[in-house]
Amino acid sequence: MTDDGSTSFIEGLSSPRLLSTHLPYSLLPKRMTHDGSACRFIYICRNPIDKASVESPKKVLLLKYEDVKKKPLECVRKVAELLEIPFTPDEENNKIVKEIVELCSFENLSNQDVNKSDVLLATLISSGK
């Protein structure tokens, strides 16, 4: 696409065409992206959080939902290390990490009385605190 938004130069290329762009999908011409279009796209991107975690490993921790579900103990340890409050050997031996995982589980949190009510504290909402 040219600066003025024209795609005429693309249409002049012989088919099939192979193009490379840094435009986000949402900015591509609609005639290329609509369901009836014959255009196909391969979208390659790098997760910006992953990039940040590589550049600033002491500031950014990348946790994927799937990893948290599969290895919750390991993820809790990583969070503690990021916050610079790693677990002591005594805490590890006393199963504190496991206890934290259990307390933070969906099952446990969804069974808390505060999460079973549709009532919101108006003072929290109105005061912004």
TrEMBL record:
Q: What is its EC number?
A: 2.8.2.-
The enzyme's main class, written as a single word, is transferase
Keyword Membrane among record annotations: no
What lineage is this protein's organism placed in? Eukaryota, Viridiplantae, Streptophyta, Embryophyta, Tracheophyta
Specify the species.
Gossypium raimondii (Peruvian cotton)
Q: Which Pfam families match?
A: Sulfotransfer_1
Similarity section: Belongs to the sulfotransferase 1 family.
Q: Which SUPFAM superfamilies does this one have?
A: P-loop containing nucleoside triphosphate hydrolases
Name it.
Answer: Sulfotransferase
Q: Which residues cross the membrane?
A: none
Domain Sulfotransferase, which positions? 10-51, 55-118
Enumerate the GO terms in the molecular function aspect. sulfotransferase activity
Q: Which UniProt keywords apply?
A: Transferase
